[in-house]
Amino acid sequence: MGTLFKNIKGDRLIWAIAALLAIFSFLPVYSAASNLAYASDNGHTFNYFIKHFVHLFLGFAIIYGVHKIPYRYFKGLSMIMIPVVLVLLMVTMFQPDLAESATNARRWIRVPLVGFTFQPSTLASVVLMVYVARYLSKIQHKEISFKETLLPLWAPVFLILVLILPANFSTTAMIFTMVVILAFLGGYPLRYLGLIVGSGLIVFTFFILLAKAFPDMMPNRIDTWMSRIDNFSNGEDADANYQIEKAKIAIASGGIKGLGPGKSVQKNFLPQSSSDFIFAIIIEEYGMIGGLFLLLFYMLLLIRLVIVSQKSETVFGKLLVVGVGLPIVFQALINMAVAVELFPVTGQTLPLISSGGTSIWMTCLAIGIVLSVSAKREEIKSQEGLVDNPLEILSETI
User: Fold this and answer.
1) Is pLDDT above 80 for 291?
2) Do strands 117-118 and 109-110 pair parallel, antiparallel, or not at all (unpaired)?
3) By percentage, how much of the chain surpasses pLDDT 90?
4) What is the rounded CA–CA span in Å between residue 356 and residue 23?
5) Residue 110: its H or E element
């Protein structure tokens, strides 16, 4: 164990935040999974505890393995992985539904032999952000022409988004937003970004019109998107409204201090209580205090991401940390906003807290990449014999 800790590199506070979130997740996931266990697994809730433990164990193994890889290698890996994720997304898009439930409709692909399902869109998100960071760092000090960037930069972005869009609008919108933000931070001209955003809106509008005119031409969930937006606006959709109402009851029941660990009542009625709406269960059991502490951890993670990005020695390192790290915090905020009805229902999980293998593993992959960047800075400092001044040491502990 001592040897393992000696081999852990990178930002220690990011390691600590990830570990604390993962440890805390066992309590709400185990509690919220009880209704799933009694409905489908003869009441054996411990099976869900073990499953979540395995997912997190593999996730932290991913963090450890990835953070040992010099981050410069991710440039080439992103170019190799872009065709791979395109193929995975096409296979996922055109395969038969794995289940009748709309939540499973063409988002997942079943891995042969091992038997578990995998969501390629989450892998595509991380790969795409690395790819965009690589390209932006490459043209950082060059005269940027919109025409020259269309094929190498925006073509892969739009191809991936078009393949994700029919089954998962919220993920598509989040990836597109993160790419635009990264391009802005990477110095991509605003006038060109305006063209990209406008083109994206035109493509999205055309897709909706085409899907409405020819509903059998391709699988899509437009009716689900529309109902969720309508429900958010006027509360007419009974199913989506049911989820939000139960989430609000859970939050109101929790009050300031909460009902206590495992004492949630709404977990027995709230669909996706261990994944999409786990934040509502956390507030019901741990109160507003628990919810604010959780929000504080994600904000602390955001601060550390900014610090690691600023201290990176290369432009690629700076953009890489922002590209793969910012979506984690952004997704967490979206999940919380949905639970308190500040945002329409999206299906986005709470990173490192919600149950689910793919979401945990891809979050850990992103964290591993961030730690790889910070580990490189530590290596450079040790080689040069640099010592941080007391103020810098203090800033790295807060």
Assistant:
1) yes
2) antiparallel
3) 50
4) 15
5) strand 109-110
